[in-house]
Fold each of these.
Amino acid sequence: MKIISINAGSSSLKFSLINMEDESVIASGVFERIGIDGSYTIKFNGEKYTENVNLSNHNDAVNILLEKLISLNIVNSLEEIEGVGHRVVQGKDVFDKTVIVDNEVMEKLESIKHFAPLHNPANMLGIEAFQKALPNVPNTVVFDTAFHQTMKPETYLYPVPYEWYEKYGIRKYGAHGTSHRYITETMNQILNTDNFKLISCHIGNGASITAIENGICVDTSMGFTPLAGVMMGTRSGDIDPSLIPPVMESEHKNIDDIINDLNKNSGVLGLSGISSDMRDLETAYENGNERAILTMKKYVRRITDYIAQYYVLLGGATAIAFTAGVGENSPLIRKMVCDNLKCLGVQIDEEKNKVRGKQTCISTDDSKIKVYVIPTDEELMIARDTLNLIKNA
Ligand code: AMP
């Protein structure tokens, strides 16, 4: 059985075609500059196929993708594709799990799309394009927020007027839920039980930390939007909102400009003035660049603060897992974070910590908390959910 995982953005559409017999990726790729001019890159059998094509909308991208699956002999017939799973950024409290798309689901998606105006409408375009192109194939929607729906009100509510929650849905929703759920399931397989306390650190360009107990989310660092929590590549993470008015006034900016600065010009990029990419920061840090050293200290401090907070919330921790671009590939950041956690009995093995992008336990045998590197796989999680739903439909 073959399933396609889709991540549609406003001008891009990423896909992975997965063979569910052995969960291997058959082909993957991205369609870009949709609505501008258009190009695609498809990876298959060790080859990379790239072409500029006219992509006036998401339907064009999906039609060309399906055409290429046939012409490149990736599949013999489109009938081999038995399901399409779509990543959706925001499910609010309307969706607490993956569901098969029907008219009611599309109506609900329509009703919440203004909560993620840059993402949800684009995700919906992807769904509609597949509904048109493959009308007999079920589509599912997998929400970045769904895993976090188990948080309790005292966790997800902000200490602001309660009416804001009642009238406008102002609360913490979290993000990266599909990744944190994948890490939880993998930890479940490693430990052979879901009876554990896990602090899952998804540290990529976007970053979030989640406290998990018995397989469910207890708290997570992102909030009403993915701007909250730890410091990220270009996002500030938590700040005092009172800093906004003086900057608006002094720089003659409006609120959209400031939110844009907090999303795109802050975090590692903003503080260092060097780059948003941790590889560049590490090089500058190793060369003794003062701002890079400051930025790394702040970055690590923010991650450590959340881990410490969640350690107390969970009443201890069985394991800490590092995942995503930085978490999987930066021994330096992992070491700096774990060194800050020594008072909790965290000990990492420096040799084991040299790993990049490979599932490994990097803690010493006598570490009080086990520390893992676990490469995340959101596409596979989406495909697994899709398979489970269509099998039981
Ligand atoms: P993601 O958002 O999960 O794709 O992560 C992307 C980020 O991972 C990049 O912006 C880099 O900051 C970081 N990254 C990727 N490879 C490395 C590496 N070898 N060392 C440090 N950071 C890395």
Amino acid sequence: MPSDVIGAFTEFDIVKTAEMARGLQPEARYLFVVGGSSEFDRWWLAKARADLAAFSKDYETTYLEDLTIDEFVKRAAEFPRDSIVIALTIFKDSAGRNFIPREAIRQISRTASAPIYGPYPTYVDYGVVGGNVVTFESLGMTVADLALDALAGKPISNLESPQTYIADARQLQRWGLPEKNLPPGTVQMFREPTFWEQYWFAVVAALAVITTQGIVITGLLIERRRRRKAEIESRRRLLEVVHLNQSATAGALSASIAHELNQPLGAIRSNAEAAAIILRSERPDLKLIEQILIDIQDDDQRAGDIISRMRGLLKKRSEIDWQEFDLNEVTTSAILILHGEAERKGVVVSSNRPPRALPVRADKIHVQQVILNLATNAMDAMLEMVATERRLVLETTLTRESQVELSISDTGRGIPDEQLASVFEPFYTTKPTGTGLGLSIARAIIETYGGKIWADNRPEGGAVFRVVLPLARSG
Ligand code: ADP
């Protein structure tokens, strides 16, 4: 170069390319250096021989030169797998054919059975793994900087373009060479972003949604278990409370029930005495005695019924006995239980019912207990009225399509309007010996079976309590 030429220089350090190959293939045992037959090719081969003298000592080294392109291709297919192949330039083969070197390299790399490295960036995408190179971009930048400095009148001197390691990610994959063994700072080309790099946002978002969903579902499951437990506990308590309520009712009714029981028992005794007298006569009237015995049987049956109703009232249960029954039937049996008490208190009990059955699904004894609570309250409320005006009416109807209603109305003093809701509160009572639990238990029972209960005052005086329950499906 004339002495007044200043420029940017490229240094081709073939040893650095070889070191890169060693890093990627630490187990390699063979080294092949490929070069063409042009003057420049031969210069390169000679320089590589000198530069790689130390490096090649660790390998069984072969310089492939003075070959035709076909011979290169053929030899390339025979490289042992544990070989490092360094391609220099092939501007011309031994048969005198001219090449753009990278075109020749492409042909060789197609059949090559070991990875090929090279000192030029233009070899990438032509089947080469990579190498230590000066990119034409960086060379151009260096020259341009020099020119700019010169134009700006700054002092300038020769510069070397920076070297970089480059690698073709597809070739790394082709030969199974791990990315982590590349020299630090290697620029990877044709690298497909990993699944994570491409979709990390969607993955994170999906995981976040799944995790949130998981937390919510777990929370709901825990909540559901707690609710189930609470429901079981509340049922158990309800059963206990209803049983206490039943016992209290039985206690309250015991005087009238005992009185009621006296009637058939008294009749049995009188009939037995009459039969004894008849039998003592000379010609006992056997027809009459037969009739007396039939009466005794009937009275015994009546007494038995009274006792079994009382027993039913006192029966303790550990589970709700769900069954389908006719609400009319339970109303009738409640009236029979109350019959004696009503008589004692001078209350006239009557009932209105539709001709059809009103099936509901619940525990029969529980619904009967509701009726007993409402009816005994009604009778209590009428105590202060004139005896001729004490009337208790139990009425059952089918309201709308799928509900049955039971109303219990009395001719008592009624309930102050502002107390209509609070009478259902536990411990609300206006009676000196009251517990204030009857109505709250009645409400708990009815709500357990999906129904509703509320109180009203009748326009003509007295209170009316209404209970609605869902009609059982078969009805
Ligand atoms: P208790 O009968 O022990 O007082 P309840 O819960 O059965 O408890 O009733 C609560 C209160 O509601 C009664 O004390 C009474 O004041 C009122 N009550 C209930 N039924 C009637 C009714 N038919 N007429 C007027 N008041 C009533």
